[in-house]
Specification:
3-stranded mixed sheet; alpha/beta; 8-stranded parallel barrel; beta-glucosidase activity; cellulose degradation; TIM Barrel
């Protein structure tokens, strides 16, 4: 008889994730200074609706309530990020203790409820002062295209580790450095909004360097029991057809989406095809001797963030990416490939982000990372979907999200059966929040947030996910017309 439930391993972490700028608010309190996202969101035309993260979910004042929500849902882990400008307002020098105290209190509250804190050091909120510094201006910065920013990050990592290392055992250096480099400095749809393909590649290298230096700083400050990793957003890239031209398009995007980070971090190299593809953009002289020894650091885990696959073909003419899921821009986030590769919408139903739903991409990535980093445990550090959630009669029913989650958790389970060492799953996101350039128009949360009143309402998906977390089991299938919980 076929077992009706899919069982996950004992000790599997069932979590949810957030990011500081997306939920905290309190942007001018207790010494915090602007980040690049404060500046970007206050620039007219950069964020839909003119939305900003000034208040967001007001988590800076409502964090106890949010931890209670996690506890009531029975989740065993919470992934959050530390606001760099809240802790180190200028991006250099001593920490602001009031900023660290906020995270000390948050972590203590999580531990008091039996929830494992999973700390991310960088989720895109670079201190504006580091971005504003002019290139070549001495030890200043100039954002991620400037080498000094990597050293500033390592200093920040050491400060946070010194303050929270006695409480937090799971540490992530960077979240989705691809977005920081290629959306922030290539297409310009993310902060700081620059559109320079050479700067995007410099930023990618300096993020790799920051990761390596950050791991070294964490290892120097943390107790031996601490686990250190990184969260990448690898792309499950698929060719539109098996033609040689489309396979080459797939290779180009795989190099820019995936191997530009996994090469330096896991193997200590930039692949020859990546260097050749981008030779017309940069000569890579910003890679100094010894850098790739630093970028390749032993890791205790790898985080995989996944939402939807990418389907590519050889471009049939100029015009850059289409349907690549990274926002509309006249500038490509793919240096050296923007006019050679076309993006196509994958088959399947769409989320509110216009992203196709395809759980097989998650399983494929978990197996690919298992092969690339044998012996390194994996976590799904982000996975989720936005839908047009609306409260009705005091409740929020979101069966589409439940179907999305069920399909992707089943994919994780299949990866486990095929040998992937997946230790946990962090759903994106605990709360509806500021969704970057989309403002407040897209809702990813398990918990509905009324932004006028800040009232939190767990959705049907939250109750369903709570049952999965409590049992450690997933129904093998869902009713075709799932009514909600």
């Amino acid at each position: 008889m076929t077992d009706a439930r899919l069982r996950f391993p004992p000790g599997f972490l069932w979590g949810a994730a957030t990011a500081a700028y997306q939920i905290e608010g309190g942007v001018r309190e207790d010494g915090r200074t602007p980040s690049i996202w404060d500046t970007f969101s206050h620039t007219p035309g950069k964020v839909l609706g003119g939305d900003t993260g000034d208040v967001a979910c007001d988590h800076y004042h409502r964090w106890r309530e949010d931890v209670r929500l996690l506890a009531e849902l029975g989740l065993t882990a919470y992934r959050f990020s530390v606001s760099w400008p809240r802790v180190q307002p200028t991006g250099r020098g001593p920490a602001v203790q009031r900023g660290l105290d906020f995270y000390r209190a948050l972590v203590d509250e999580l531990l008091a409820h039996g929830i494992t804190p999973a700390l991310t050091l960088y989720h895109w909120d670079l201190p504006q002062e580091l971005e504003s510094a002019l290139p070549g201006g001495g030890p200043a910065g100039g954002g991620w295209p400037e080498r000094d920013t990597a050293y500033r990050f390592a200093e920040f990592a050491g400060l946070v580790a010194g303050a929270l290392g006695d409480r937090v055992e799971m540490w992530t250096t960077l979240n989705e450095p691809w977005c920081s480099a290629f959306l922030g400095y290539g297409s310009g749809v993310h902060a700081p909004g620059r559109t320079d393909p050479a700067a995007a590649l410099r930023a990618a290298h300096h993020l790799n360097l920051a990761h390596g230096l950050g791991v070294q700083a964490l290892r120097a400050a943390l107790p031996a029991r601490a686990r250190v990793g990184v969260s990448l957003n690898p792309s499950a890239v698929r060719p539109l057809t098996p033609s040689p031209a489309d396979l080459d398009a797939r290779r180009r995007i795989d190099a820019l989406a995936n191997r530009v980070f996994t090469g330096p971090m896991l193997r200590g190299t930039y692949d020859d095809d990546l260097l050749a593809d981008t030779a017309g953009v940069t000569d890579w002289a910003f890679v100094h001797g010894g850098d790739l020894d630093v970028t390749r650091q032993p890791l205790d885990f790898l985080g995989v963030n996944y939402y939807t696959p990418a389907v590519v073909s050889a471009a049939d003419g100029p015009g850059g990416p289409r349907h690549d899921g990274h926002g509309a821009s006249a500038h490509s986030p793919w240096p050296g490939a923007g006019d050679r590769v076309a993006f196509h919408r994958a088959p399947g139903e769409l989320t509110a982000m216009d992203w196709p739903v395809d759980p097989t991409g998650l399983k494929d990535l978990l197996m690919e990372y298992t092969a690339q980093a044998p012996g390194v445990p994996l976590y799904v550090t982000e996975n989720g979907a936005a839908y047009e959630d609306k409260p009705e009669g005091g409740a929020v029913h979101d069966p589409d999200r439940v179907r999305y989650l069920h399909g992707h958790l089943a994919a994780v389970h299949q990866a486990l059966l095929e040998g992937a060492d997946v230790r946990g799953y962090f759903l994106w996101s605990l709360l509806d929040n500021f969704e970057w350039a989309y403002g407040y128009g897209k809702r990813f949360g398990l918990v509905y947030v009324d932004y006028d009143t800040q009232e939190r309402t767990p959705k049907s998906s939250a109750r369903w996910y709570a049952k999965v977390a409590a049992s450690g089991e997933l129904p093998r299938s869902l009713p075709e017309a799932w009514p909600g919980v």
